[in-house]
Amino acid sequence: MHPCRAGRYPAPLIPVLLRLTIFSLLLSINRVIGSSLWPHQQINTTDLEFGNSKKNEGSSEFVHLKYHMGPVLTTNITVHTIWYGTWQESQKQIIRSFLNSISAVNSKTPSVSGWWKTLQLYTDKTGANITGTVRLGAEKNDQFYSHGKSLSRLSIQSVIKSALTDTKQPLPANPKNGLYLLLTSDDVHVEDFCGQVCGFHYFTSPSIVGYTLPYAWVGNSATKCPGLCAYPFAVPEYMPGLKALKPPNGDVGVEGMISVIAHEIAEVATNPLGTGWYAGEDPSFPVEIADLCEGIYGTGGGGSYMGQLLNGKDGSTYNMNGIRRRFLVQWVWNPVLNYCSGPNALDQ
């Protein structure tokens, strides 16, 4: 979500329209880029897969998604990851696998790469589609908590600056197609984390970092608020009768992060500088393409229902296949069909 809005913050039993409004306020700590549809440009849908579902999940005549003439990420995206705090290699592998799965070829359907096809429907003012290539770039380990275990929104950018200016192994500065993903371990507190947000995206200030770089932050909620930020693999304390679902990769906190990471990357791709795709008239409080589908993971989703999901033989729940792993990822708004869609949609 945008920084001026609150980040992803699940509320499973709130009615869908109210919930979408709340999530619009909770999912964006970072300022989001405006999005107005380019009125004179046909969206290029050639070779893009929709599946056969005609289900109108989340569709509404009141949703006016617009393109605001700013840039979107049409060139190959390189994700540079900053691991802030204490991370196990097994946790890193889950997240790397998801990121690598975005552009994977021949993944078993429904796939993460199929989910990204919806992102490719979005264009810039020249008619160029968002890229189909998302690759992992350089990584930076900040295991000594260079800025402490309590981070403000502003200090998030200072952490990124430190990673870029490190004297030993600095991250490359890539303003054109770099996306900087800051991930904080479960012992790190970030301003508004758990109280308002689970993650957010924005862009760095040249006065702080030296460059204007799109970035996203997502925190591991395992020890702080798993019932809020790792739902449905954990449930809120106020819902004692609800049984948590089994995560497909065995790590509640990290798997809760996966859908938030997907949410933020989707919004960075379509609204990297707050002047791209979003609904609403105020760019400081935009409703972006993932905000519109918060809580929807399958056909029939809406209200307190996540939609029809898939179950593994081990009893885990997922809705997409990746590279040798399975994931649960929320849907995003489809600008051609004008409703939320995903690769696991069922025929009607």
TrEMBL record:
Q: One matching Pfam family, short form?
A: Phi_1
- Where is it localised? Secreted, Extracellular space, Apoplast
InterPro entries named among the record's database cross-references: EXORDIUM-like (IPR006766)
Q: Which GO terms describe its cellular component?
A: apoplast
Q: Could you list this entry's UniProt keywords, alphabetically sorted.
A: Apoplast, Secreted, Signal
Major site of localization recorded for this protein: secreted
Q: Which domain of life is it from?
A: Eukaryota
Identify its protein family: Belongs to the EXORDIUM family.
Q: What is this protein called?
A: Uncharacterized protein
Q: What is the lineage of its organism?
A: Eukaryota, Viridiplantae, Streptophyta, Embryophyta, Tracheophyta
